[in-house]
Amino acid sequence: MCGIVGYVGEREALPIILKALKRIEYRGYDSCGVLVQNQGEMMGHKEVGAIDCLISSLSKSGYEGKIAIGHSRWATHGAPTVTNAHPHLDCNGEIAVVHNGIIENYQSIKEGVLCDCIFQSETDTEVIPHLINICLKSKLSPTELHSGELNAMQVKEAVKEALSYLRGSYAILVAVKGFDGLVAARKESPLIVGVGDREFFVASDVPAVLNQTNRIIFLEEEDLVVVEKDSIYIENGGSEVKREESLIEWTIEDAEKGGYEHFMLKEIHEEPKAIRDTLMGYLTEGRINLGLDFIVDAESILLVACGTSYYAALCGKYIIENLAKIPVRIEVASEFNYSDFVLDGSKVVAMAITQSGETADTLTALKKAKGYGCKTVAITNVLGSSATRLADETIYSRAGPEIGVAATKSFITQLTIFYLLGLFLSKMPASVFAEHINELKRMPQIAQRVLDEVNIQKHARYLSKYEHTFFVGRGINLPISLEGALKLKEISYIHAEGYAAGELKHGPFALLTEDTPVIAILTRDDIYEKTLGNVKEIKARGSPVIAIAEEDDEEVEKYVDDVIRVPRTSALFSPIPNTVALHLLAYWTAKERGCEIDKPRNLAKSVTVE
Ligand code: AGP
After folding, report:
1. What would the mean pLDDT of 145-173 be, rounded to a whole number?
2. What is the whole-number distance in angstroms between the Cα of residue 577 and the centre of ligand 1?
């Protein structure tokens, strides 16, 4: 995700800002930029690519000033180009903004209140400096506006009014010509203030400033803050508020993980936000806009992928066929590429699901599908990745950078896209559609409840003692049991097999002993009794069974050894809470076993070889 940094104080700002940007490189980005303000001069520079390019381009810039803002961009709206890089300025070049988040209603703002403005970029962010400009002009006389001396309250009020137009998420920093300070604000995107001696640092998160100060103010939801070199003013809901300083004892590496021990745990805890951000990108006022109008003519869909993305595709098959009644064929990319696959692609849309957008097998499958004449779509988490350049269209998951080798939040955002796609293609009555949309919009909270309420550690301590285990499920939760098994084996090195619950009796029963615990997904659906029957068969062979079941299911505990309780949802949406629970189970089991977790042996985050 994007990173923003700002400085105001007694020292030269540019070197401080560039160092801060270097320290948040781990967040992932594709372009970057800075703006230095000095005596009313606004000096900026932007680059596509690494921050080191920015540093070398600016090494002889002579940009001097004690106020600066900077940005590392993880593109969501608009390709990674210099024009789309931040900071973005108003038409007079006197207001500069850097932003992390997604402005959901930027198009309607451009067509409405900003219809007379000329925009340089494709970004959502660029509406913000233009809004601040018209709000300043509405509050100040031309003399005041061009006096070259604006005060904190004038600027703060204009920024506050501009923010009232926005819907979506933001963490912003604003520099205004003639004002010797910075204004910042946050909504659903993190923002912190580092406190120094007659200087302040503002940033997306702690690593950016930890080399300068460990006195940190964690801004709260909808805080608006004004920093000048000698003062800080924080407001929320129109009234001044006081926010405590925290003294951070983290190391830099700890800080990059947001205080979590591993990136994987941080990324599992980001799953609710990843779902929300992905929904925000494609769901507006109950309407789904995936930009894939051609897909409505498809007679069938072909999904190709590898690993965890393949399990997302398997789940996607259940989702799309349930919602849209369109046949979906799934192929493991590495098999599809060398099969005598017969396909008339003229009425088939082929979709490649790949978090990295660089998986060689999946890219080959994409090319093969094009060869059959399919319209192709990439579902990926990385803007500008190879898959996006190969496919006719792209749907971006908005999970943000995923550092842990084991896919977690990217997987759950792939599922989110399949729910959107299935609903987009469905022909259900409007009332039923609205019910599904409402349940989909509740998924971030459902995921958050699993994180907050499920005591997974005790099950992990139990499971960590075993070397062999099965994960079983049926229907839409079969892919989730396969994913749960993959996650566990990847990072805990326990041999875990995902299996259709109804299939164990056709062979794997031979492996069942008291030393092969079985994790059974038993959230209620129309084959719950069947699955419960399978679990009874498993129990009869002496294997311990831990069920994943709904919080209000009083039946299940009679037949299993333990239960991981998840919030109740409809059967269709049960993969969401079940996935979060299984990702947590894999993580804590691996932690119990003292495994490496973020970088498991023999594995890579992106498998760019066939
Ligand atoms: C998932 O935890 C693994 N890291 C691996 O199976 C991964 O899903 C697979 O390599 C596909 O990667 P992609 O989504 O980037 O194409």
Report:
1. 92
2. 21
Residues lining ligand 1, judged by CB closer than 6 Å?
306-309, 354-356, 359, 362, 405-407, 490, 606-607
Q: What pLDDT is recorded for position 394?
A: 93
Which atom of ligand 1 is nearest the CA belonging to 306? Answer: 11
The CATH code of the domain that includes 479 is 3.40.50.10490
Give the residue numbers spanning the domain of 552: 452-598
Tell me: do 468 and 375 sit in the same domain.
no
- For residues 465 and 563, state if they share a domain: yes
**Boundary residue ending a domain (234, 253, 272):** 253
* pLDDT value of position 384: 67
Quick one: pLDDT band at residue 452, thresholds 50, 70, 90? very high
Q: Answer yes or no: 135 catalytic.
A: no
**162, two tokens:** 């501009």
Q: Which two tokens stand for residue 483?
A: 């994913």
Location of structure tokens 């963490």: 171
Note whether residue 610 is domain-resident.
no
**Total domains, the chain:** 3
Q: Find residue 468's DSSP bridge partners.
A: 495
Residue range 103-107: average pLDDT? 92
pTM: 0.77
Who has greater pLDDT, 139 or 414?
A: 414
Among 361, 359, 312, smallest CA distance to 334 is for: 361
3-state secondary structure of 474: coil
Q: Is 2 known to be catalytic?
A: yes
Domain shared by 386 and 494, yes or no = no
**Other CB atoms closer than 10 Å to residue 392's CB: what's the count?**
15
